[in-house]
Amino acid sequence: MSDGSTTSSVKMRIKREIGGFKGLFGRVRHRWWFRILAVLALLAGLFVFLVWLFIARNLPSVDTLKNYEPPLPTNVRSVEGLPIHSYARERRVQLSFAEYPKLLVEAYMSAEDKTFFEHHGVDFPGLARAAFQGLISGSTPRGTSTITQQVAKNLLVGNETSYLRKAKEGILAWRMEDTLTKQQIMELYLNSIELGRNAGGVEAASQAYFGKELDKLTLPQMAYLAILPKGPSNYDPERHTQRALDRRNWVLGQMLDNGFIDQAQHDAAVAAPLGTVPRQTPRFERLGGYFVEEVRRQLIDKFGETDESGPYSVYSGGLWVRTSLDPKLQQYAQKALRDGLLRYDRGRGWSGPIGRADVGKSWLQSFLNTNIGVDYEDWRAGVLIDRTGDVWQIGFDDGTTGTLPRWAATMPVRGQGGQAFDALKPGDIVAVAPESGSQWSLRSIPKVSGGMVVEDPRTGRILAMQGGFDSRLQAFNRATQAQRQPGSTIKPIVYAAALEQGMTPTSIVVDGPFCVWQGANLGQKCFRNFGNARGAGPKTLRWGIEQSRNLMTVQIANQTGMDHVVDLMQRIGVSRQKFPPYLSYALGAGETTVLRMVNAYSILVNHGRALNPSLIDFVQNRKGAVVWPENWRPCEGCNAPDWKGGAMPRPVNRAKQVIDALSAYQMVHIAEGVVQRGTATVLRDLNRPMMGKTGTTSGPTDVWFVGGTPQMIGGLYIGYDTPTNLGGYAQGGSIAAPIFKEFAIPAFEGMEKVPFTAPQGIRMVRIDRASGKPVTGAWPSSDPLSGVIWEAFKPDTEQRRGRRGQDETQETKAVEKKVAPKKQEGDSDFLQREGGIY
């Protein structure tokens, strides 16, 4: 190039265009809007991570709801399988979705979540609206929860009111919709919601508010139940009647708008009243109060009380308990004992109020909180509200009131004197009985008490139990918990020990003075008969127990050896631990319970085989499987209407033999004489095989009777909780035995008359009742005072006849050859003709 020319340098960069996604990403990643989106995505990812880290990660698994079992009460059934009681802290009945009426489901949808079957568990617009309103108002978010969210809250999250809870609720609801069907979710909801009056779930609420099952409800009643999830106390039918009506009618309007009902149904339902019933306790709660409470104690010992105790807890495990309680026998025992207590207590004056309540503005609620009631004939418990002149206003647990005039409360106050009317004060809870109109008269709850038990001696099952006058007034169960001296009812155990050690029913014992040296400190102890009765001289062992002679008893115990006597007392269950071997224990000085004494007599009737007194036959879980006793097996074919020709089942009896069977039967046979000729003759006109023994303790402070038939043994005592003299006239034969008779008359009606069965080896011999010697040429008669009776002997223990006549020799040979005698009927033939003594 020539001089003067200019030169220029141009630098160029050549880029190669990249195609595809990578090229596109390279072209847009520097754009401003892309960067904004990237930041938002990062924040969203971070938000999701934080939600997972702090909320979702620790949420409970929704899978647990597939097998969710709501807490259910334990239901107790009688021997016939009928419900008699329920152990519950809340009412609850679990139903399947198919068991809920369609209109009821639609009522709850209209009140709570009309699009339930359309959404996926979360109402996002509603959540946003609630959150915004909460932020504006400065309050926590409320409402807008779908039914799915409410299930999540009730069963998995809890009731905390916060944004965090709402977030957890929403996440779980979304997961639930992926795991469960809509029907399963609705079922969980209707079974678990709390609806007031201690009702969990809609079926329980139906019973609590309307006193009937769910499928019996009307449309307006279903609509009322649908308003309760928002707050049962807000729509209480008694305190907020109009508010409840307005809200119910709103639900009916929503059902009309949603097309669930037509206009005619809507108008008729809106015009209907609420139709609720007053708050009430379960109808079967009062039957066998002491029995069902003892069952509850045993169940708690076995399964525990709450969820933490295991899957079969008493208050939430949903157990079904079959007991041995016979409702009819329970009613007879309950009435007999109560009548006996009232007979003894009559004429002793008013015993005072049975409780206290605050009679301010809400006397009814205060009265209900005491849970005091009286369940005897037409008596009721009432609280004294106010006095006007000679008339008290008295209120009852159903909200009604009545009057108690002076003339109906004139009995003297026990231990103080003066009329009971003047001793009454506002707030006193008293027992009253109806008079004319709205007037009531004062009644006195007896201060004396007692306990009674009835047992099947073939199985040990307890058929009835009464532990006092009324379980709602006196929770202490005197049938199982009261430790009392049994008095002369211990004597059959003492005599049974003597029979085991070789004595016979005809052994001769002197009814005379008996003293023992107790050592330098205690000196000499001399025993005496009841009432200081003089000794009768040499008498048979049978006579001694029929007449309940103390002197003969201590001599027999002394000859037998008190070590043997107290050992049998422990083996047969009278005492948990062996009593000291002192002669006073042969007269009933040791303490025991009615249940133990009844079981001991039942063992004697059961040929000496051990019995474990039981109140519970078996326990089923909520699905019907038997969970107790272990290895329980059903009796297949036991209820078959006809015999199919197979062999008779003969279950193996594995019971322990606690007393020789022959000795046990001998004692039962002797105790039959107590009813025929002894201290319990008040029972003789029941006209059936019976054994028993009366008892009266020192003082006397307690009176007893224990005894019964081959099918039923009962026992009872009466006495003050703090041992107090009952009066010199008080005896087991005059007070306790008549109570048992009052029970027995209806209880034994229609029951087959069967004799006590004798074990193999027992020999029935005719004896002279006074001397105990065998007789010939004479036969026992139906006269209880007959001079000749049948006596039970072990092989080769009866006395030999002093002279054998021709007739006797021929009779003996005929019996040995098992043919009828030629001139005189033999014992065996006579027994068979008369029905037998087995």
From TrEMBL:
<keyword id="KW-0735">Signal-anchor</keyword>
<dbReference type="InterPro" id="IPR001460">
    <property type="entry name" value="PCN-bd_Tpept"/>
</dbReference>
<keyword id="KW-1133">Transmembrane helix</keyword>
<dbReference type="GO" id="GO:0008360">
    <property type="term" value="P:regulation of cell shape"/>
</dbReference>
<dbReference type="Pfam" id="PF17092">
    <property type="entry name" value="PCB_OB"/>
</dbReference>
<protein>
    <recommendedName>
        <fullName>Penicillin-binding protein 1A</fullName>
        <ecNumber>2.4.99.28</ecNumber>
        <ecNumber>3.4.16.4</ecNumber>
    </recommendedName>
</protein>
<dbReference type="InterPro" id="IPR012338">
    <property type="entry name" value="Beta-lactam/transpept-like"/>
</dbReference>
<comment type="pathway">
    <text>Cell wall biogenesis; peptidoglycan biosynthesis.</text>
</comment>
<dbReference type="GO" id="GO:0009002">
    <property type="term" value="F:serine-type D-Ala-D-Ala carboxypeptidase activity"/>
</dbReference>
<dbReference type="GO" id="GO:0008658">
    <property type="term" value="F:penicillin binding"/>
</dbReference>
<dbReference type="GO" id="GO:0009252">
    <property type="term" value="P:peptidoglycan biosynthetic process"/>
</dbReference>
<dbReference type="InterPro" id="IPR001264">
    <property type="entry name" value="Glyco_trans_51"/>
</dbReference>
<feature type="region of interest" description="Disordered">
    <location>
        <begin position="793"/>
        <end position="838"/>
    </location>
</feature>
<keyword id="KW-0328">Glycosyltransferase</keyword>
<keyword id="KW-0997">Cell inner membrane</keyword>
<dbReference type="GO" id="GO:0071555">
    <property type="term" value="P:cell wall organization"/>
</dbReference>
<comment type="similarity">
    <text>In the N-terminal section; belongs to the glycosyltransferase 51 family.</text>
</comment>
<feature type="transmembrane region" description="Helical">
    <location>
        <begin position="32"/>
        <end position="55"/>
    </location>
</feature>
<dbReference type="GO" id="GO:0005886">
    <property type="term" value="C:plasma membrane"/>
</dbReference>
<keyword id="KW-0511">Multifunctional enzyme</keyword>
<keyword id="KW-0645">Protease</keyword>
<dbReference type="InterPro" id="IPR036950">
    <property type="entry name" value="PBP_transglycosylase"/>
</dbReference>
<comment type="similarity">
    <text>In the C-terminal section; belongs to the transpeptidase family.</text>
</comment>
<dbReference type="InterPro" id="IPR031376">
    <property type="entry name" value="PCB_OB"/>
</dbReference>
<keyword id="KW-0378">Hydrolase</keyword>
<dbReference type="GO" id="GO:0030288">
    <property type="term" value="C:outer membrane-bounded periplasmic space"/>
</dbReference>
<dbReference type="InterPro" id="IPR023346">
    <property type="entry name" value="Lysozyme-like_dom_sf"/>
</dbReference>
<keyword id="KW-0133">Cell shape</keyword>
<dbReference type="InterPro" id="IPR050396">
    <property type="entry name" value="Glycosyltr_51/Transpeptidase"/>
</dbReference>
<feature type="domain" description="Glycosyl transferase family 51">
    <location>
        <begin position="84"/>
        <end position="255"/>
    </location>
</feature>
<dbReference type="GO" id="GO:0006508">
    <property type="term" value="P:proteolysis"/>
</dbReference>
<feature type="domain" description="Penicillin-binding protein transpeptidase">
    <location>
        <begin position="450"/>
        <end position="743"/>
    </location>
</feature>
<keyword id="KW-0812">Transmembrane</keyword>
<keyword id="KW-0808">Transferase</keyword>
<dbReference type="GO" id="GO:0008955">
    <property type="term" value="F:peptidoglycan glycosyltransferase activity"/>
</dbReference>
<feature type="domain" description="Penicillin-binding protein OB-like">
    <location>
        <begin position="350"/>
        <end position="448"/>
    </location>
</feature>
<dbReference type="Pfam" id="PF00912">
    <property type="entry name" value="Transgly"/>
</dbReference>
<feature type="compositionally biased region" description="Basic and acidic residues">
    <location>
        <begin position="793"/>
        <end position="832"/>
    </location>
</feature>
<keyword id="KW-0961">Cell wall biogenesis/degradation</keyword>
<dbReference type="Pfam" id="PF00905">
    <property type="entry name" value="Transpeptidase"/>
</dbReference>
<keyword id="KW-0573">Peptidoglycan synthesis</keyword>
<keyword id="KW-1003">Cell membrane</keyword>
